[in-house]
Amino acid sequence: MNMQTKPLIARRSPGPDGEKIITLAALAVGGQGGGVLTNWIVDVAEASGYRAQSTSVAGVAQRTGATIYYVEMCRDTGRMPVFSLSPAIGDVDILMASELMEGGRAILRGFVTPGRTTMIASTHRIPAVSEKIAPGDGRANGREVIEAMGIAADHVVAFDMETVAKQAGSVISSSLLGALAGSGALPFPRESYEEVIRKSGRGVEASLRAFGAAYEIATGVSPAPAPEAEAVAPVPVLHVPEKLRAQWAALEARLATLPAEVREMAALGLKKVVDYQDMAYGADYLGMVEKAVAVDAAPFTMSEAAAKYCARALCYDDILRVADIKTRAARFARVKDEVLVKDDQILMLTEYFHPRFEELATTMPRGLGRWMQSRKGLEAWYGRHFDKGRRVRTDSLSGFVLLWLVSSLRPLRRRLLRHDSEMRHVSAWFDTVLQTAASDRALATELLANYRLIKGYSDTHARGLSKFAKVMGARDLLAGRPDAADWMRRLRTAALDDVEGTKLDGALATVRSFAA
Amino acid sequence: MAERSFAKEVQKLKQGEGETFTGEGILAITKALLENGVGYVGGYQGSPISHLMDVLADAQEILGELGVHFEASASEATATAMLAASVHYPIRGAVTFKSVVGTNVASDALSNLASGGVTGGALIIVGEDYGEGSSIMQERTYAFAMKSQVWMLDPRPNLPSIVKAVGDGFELSELSNTPVMLQVGIRSCHVHGHFEASDNKRPEMTVSEALENPKRKLDRIVLPPATYIHEAEKLTKRKPAAETFIVEKGINERFGNAAGKVGLILQGGTYNTVVRALNRLGLADLYGDTEIDMLVLNCVYPLVDSQILDFCAGKDAVLIIEEGHPNYIEQQVAHMLYQSGKTVKLEGKGKLPMGGEYTGQVMVEGLGAFLSEHAPDLLPVAKVATNEEPVAIPDLSKTLPARPPGFCTGCPERPIFAATKLVEEELGAHHISSDIGCHLFSIMPPFDIGATTMGYGLGPASAAAFHNENKKGRRAISFVGDGGFWHNGLTSSVGNAVFNKSDNVIVIVDNFYSSATGGQDILSSRAVNKTKQTQNSIVDAVKGMGVKWVRQIDRTYDVTKMRDTLKEALTTEEEGPKVIVASSECMLNKQRRVKPELAKAAKEGKRVVRPRFGVDEDVCTGDHACMRLSGCPSLSVKDTGDPLRDDPVAAIDQSCVGCGNCGEVADAAVLCPSFYQAEIVTNPTERETRRAARSRRIISWLQRRRDAKRVVFA
């Protein structure tokens, strides 16, 4: 806790005519246009009979890093006030943050003071590099920052101003200005802001739209945009061709016999699995879920985990899968949507592949694949001549057909070497889960969730597999302990936390020490 | 082409008497130079005076009309040496650079200039990059002023004061035959304000006129015995002349009640923060009116003994407010007081922190502590006693991710460091020497590359000691940017490596500009520049220096080639330094150049291809291996909304410029096939459109055919 225990009460005092200096700090991520925003604010103030001064630590050495802009203004009484050049702790009237964590940083730095500061913050996230490079989910907890805003600020105006700006075809400086105007923290009318935007000359209409939208949200006239998590892409739908309807109905019937708690996840899993391979594969999947249910009891947490992770285990990522995804109609539509292609424009699509000898061999029938794997000379020869990046144009016929042909090997998948090794791996894992469930369902649930560690391609995949093996290996050390599940979860978290696996090794050493 | 164009703003430089000038600090300084009849201007870019150089470059026409010569100097040493034009001729000259690093580079020339002294006013405008956001080591420029005996101005941070300091500086320089440093803080450079303009003045003598009428005076040249005379002259003539000027012209300002029992002596640059702190303590109004006696040193060196002693007379205690370490001013004042047998209590560091920026909070606490001890009656009761309950604010220090600066979206330097990481994965870790420039961001995650940075252009030089006795052993890798290369690297780093038969690997990161300072042109810039000779080859220069093993990579985004070349450099048996020139245009500059061109072409109906990258979220498994080799702002994470998946997947946003790094890295590191490059063709040719339509028909037939036979969940 940051207790404000400073012995001195340092508050600005007003001028003889009651005029006050208003201080405004804007924290931004370099490149967000904080300069434009502060210029606008200064212009609005000066046009409204105020004196104003802005300063910044320019973005030259600050690319993509955290940046601060600072403005002070005071009603013009004919004398020049002594304006300060940087924000001070406990002395900021208005704090603007153009990203959620930067809002948090403002609080941490003491720029948001209870009973004083109006906080105007966009709640969208720009993850920092450290959040992006974690192998799992390294993103910071935004809720904590939003809660802290409520405590630290006198008045909070917080919503996703990035989305508001985007929807208006503008950038965040416009919506931030709208939120500032709408917050009522400055004694200037809406029109004075709009006038300044109009005079700025570039992208005026879009800026005004974003300004207006944000103004109305800030004044409570219209609702804020929904948080990002709710506004994801359209929900996928299942298309079942006529001929397969009966088989699908049978699977659905089986699904209906599962406990209610499991059904939703199992339905998703089933759809994923049949989409991945075929109806029979779906039946295999349901068989696994049913086995889990058989050794489980309400609230069926373990079975739900089984429904989730068995689906993932069965749908491993191989060349066939990638070729399938890359040649789907829905995928073409999504790409078009994502990269914003207009009707009179043409989209060219290049895929980046780098098939190694390993992928080639494992995509062969079992026997042939094994034989290839045993031939080191063959691998070296492939390495010399073929091991390089391939660019495939999927908007062209030749490229598309190439991938389409690979994807049509799907019916043969069960005979391929890769499938063989994957299924061995899956059944070993699932057997361990079922065995464990007999004595410790919580631990079994964690063992299921360990499948989360297997992801990526080539080296990353290999690293994931080895972490998975390490974590699973701890099962024997933990079995029988009352906190076994908890430890298993901790091991997995450690494995997801860093790439090199040092944290995992440390956690494993701890487990070994108390198991010994 | 610089990052920011001041083409519009420089028109303000033409303003004359009676007009109010509005703009940034740097623009005001430029205007002040013209109003004071400057004859020539030079400098080297670097925050915070990069924009001053850009303003000057954009103002060349206006400067030319006035007969003012402007040069973008090769280094700070060059800039300072340029002031030699003021040694024998009555021409006012000004140069500017970043301090303290630039002053370090300039110090040889500075010593010589200061020794011989000047006839025309010589002004060195140093941009002080101290405190928050600084990208350099925290040292004081003050030491240079003391050791070289040049005078140093540190005006109050508002436009009228800064503008006045320029005029005062020239006059002071001429009267005392001494170069003068004008120090401006990073925020003063970018402060927006107003001042009353005056007419611009043509220089009394232009550099052309000087050339036509050469002059020399032996006693101004640094060579014995004149050097000994210079030293004596500094002490007996120049410094007293400066002191007289400072007092008579009222350079330093006195505020408050002179009868006060306590007083503050402060650097001009800290004035606004001090007044704000006094205001917050209830001791000053918002216009700076106060009862507290203050001596504001707009000239921080030399200090005038009589002025300081006069200020201290009759006081109980005096606080020196001096930012940075060591406390040179405090030491001098202490010396004066002691020598003259005064008993006034001297406070300074101690009440205020020894080092670090004197922020608002620091100032409130320091002044509060000083006044509580020496003048407790002055502090209003309301400031020291409160009934307010402090509010407990949640501690976010563990939640918030650090956000250090990094490479821009599409930066061509990113793939160089991705390749270096890949090489290290294969050959093991190496000793890596870094250099100043954007490429130094490689020391941050996700690259975490580089062990030292010793100075601009000194990356390879700082690997010089690493000589491996084992010819087949590991070599040091060093980086230097094109800016650093031309600034100092060609001789100090490359020449040195050749001469000493180094076996190490030198990577010259060539992005066509001095990018970290705002994209100024340099010798090897590819652009045509009206006033500069660009397009000089780095490879030729390196070969000219005697390097035998040189590889030029023309597209750094080719990560595979970059990796293989680096690997070859680390393993080749050829002797001597291995130099790789890795060239691709700075993306920030490229976008600024190309975007309007493309928009125009598209509008005119020409075929335009806009590339960008995307991620197939169904193929991406959320392991983020790509981001561990990239850190691109446009490559980020997002939720899939799929309950079957736990981890966020990679996603590329609208800011992507399609540089290709993602795909190339995925390829070179064999990551995953999730990346695709989308090229959007505006105004396609008819043939192209027909062909695309035909492909689309067949493709969608194939897709329908397949979907008819299976279940699709999409």
Automatic annotation (TrEMBL), chain A:
The keyword Oxidoreductase applies. PANTHER family: INDOLEPYRUVATE OXIDOREDUCTASE SUBUNIT IORB. The keyword Lipid metabolism does not apply. GO terms for molecular function: indolepyruvate ferredoxin oxidoreductase activity. Residues 30-216 form the Pyruvate/ketoisovalerate oxidoreductase catalytic domain. Keywords: Oxidoreductase. Residues 262-472 form the DUF6537 domain. InterPro entries: DUF6537, IorB_Oxidoreductase, Pyrv/ketoisovalerate_OxRed_cat, Pyrv_flavodox_OxRed_cen. This is Indolepyruvate oxidoreductase subunit B. Its EC number is 1.2.7.8.
UniProtKB/TrEMBL annotation, chain B:
One of its GO terms (biological process) is small molecule metabolic process. Keywords: Metal-binding. Residues 448-581 form the Thiamine pyrophosphate enzyme TPP-binding domain. CDD domains: TPP_IOR_alpha. One of its GO terms (molecular function) is indolepyruvate ferredoxin oxidoreductase activity. The keyword Metal-binding applies. Signal peptide: none annotated. Pfam families: TPP_enzyme_C. InterPro entries: HACL1-like (IPR045025), IorA (IPR017721), THDP-binding (IPR029061), TPP_enzyme_TPP-bd (IPR011766). Gene3D superfamilies: 3.40.50.970. The keyword Aminoacyl-tRNA synthetase does not apply. It comes from the Bacteria. This is Indolepyruvate ferredoxin oxidoreductase. It comes from Alloyangia mangrovi.
